[in-house]
Amino acid sequence: MKKLFSKYTFPILAACSMSLFTACDKDFAEINTNPNAVSVPTTAYIFSKALYDGAANSGNKGSLLFGLMQYTTSYNDVEGFGSKYTASQVNATGGVFTNSYPTQINEIGEVIKAVKDDPTKVNQYAMARIWRVYCFSRLTDLYGDIPYSEAGQGYNLSIFQPKYDAQSAIYADMLKELEASATALTTSNTSTFGNSDLIYQGNVTKWKKFAYSLMLRLGMRLTKVDAASAQSWVTKAIAGGVIRDYADIAKMSYTSGGQNINKNPIAWQLLNDNYLRADGINNTEGGKYQDVFINSLKANNDPRLGVLSVVYVNGTASSDESIQKGMPATINGTKPADFVTFSEPKQTTVLKVDAPLLLFTVAESNFLLAEAALRGWYSAETASSLYETGIRAAMQQWDLISGTTGTIAQARIDSYVAAHALKTSSSVAVQTEQIYNQVWVGLFPDAQEVYNNYRRTGYPALTPNVYPGNATGGKIFRRFLYPVLEQTLNRASYNEAVQRQGTDDLLTKVWWDK
Hints:
Helix content is 49%, strand content 5%. By secondary structure, it is mainly alpha-helical. The protein has a three-stranded antiparallel beta sheet. Strands 1-5 form a two-stranded antiparallel ribbon. A two-stranded antiparallel sheet has the order 2-3. Helix 16 packs parallel to helix 19. The longest helix has 22 residues. The radius of gyration is 25 Å and the shape is globular.
């Protein structure tokens, strides 16, 4: 065969050369065109993919942030990195960065490029810009300075080593983008993504509320670093109208069948990491709820305990609140003999793959508004009433996740609210702590947003785990590390970011955390 190839290659190539402009180019374009490829992309489909990927990469931090916020832990040092800060696993924090740019950031950028100059698609343009802010906000909040203004421009502008923008500049632009997009959205124009919009199915009014709700979230993020700007943006968001009704909750819907991209990303990752066997024993990575979380729920007689957790008794899941028990994060590498007795996420709620992923809720709006009221930035309602509404909303939203009505009995909600009233006669600090203790439970399983608020407010006042061989000296880390490859492939930009922001270290604070 080798001899035959050698024998006939030259004559064939020579013949082709002699007839270069005749026979050999006949049907060349047709032969080299993939009949299954799309020459003109369908923008609506790319938008759907950007939504899926943005939601998935926001949710897929699994054991890392779940462990860091002391919801879960593992006896396995690798899986338990988030709760143990084990030095050998620190580079795992670069995964969100690595996964974000080629997917959601690139995809939403292509959507914006396709619609921005078309005056008939003003709503599509605004919605895409809002989603781009959502994606970038989740990314910069984890890393600080990141590629932003030049991100996703490799194909369009041949920018293969994008600069890292300062987080202060990123925040300024994101807030400007939200304001411009919310203003541009109009019911007089019918250009939406329709059913390809997996969040609101093209509802312009709801997208506007989502934009102002994100403005409220990001504006409040500035309280430590620039209180005046924080107040200005929070006030503007409230005036624009934020999410206050269940029908307006920003959520991604999923199914139990089909491809994995169609499944709730938090539930799907938790299941695959640990809980597919559903017997309390054969947990692949050794994961269970952490004792800090379960002990808090039990101590506060929180009716969510039986909604979120189960203990397997003789192979059967039990939600009996009296037997729920969290596993200590200090267990050192060996599976405990009583492993089966520890609580783990419930299959019909937290692990429900066709449950919606809640991106911005009524509960979050009310908790943020309660803080704004405490600061004197909002006076139409009291901090106490907003705080109470936030608690009720956080409990009632489990109806959306479970797919049932009355998941938590109204009487138990009333009893809990009465027992945890805001201490209005105490200091602002005491009341703020109460609010963000409720955020810790009420926004679960959105561990990243809880982590963001923990860094900003210091609440809940979690006690770090001083574990042998940890990477932080027994401190809860303040940011994620850039991927190692950035030091090789984008060294100049990486070095500039590190010089400006500080050492690429887990304890270096991002701009708004300083």
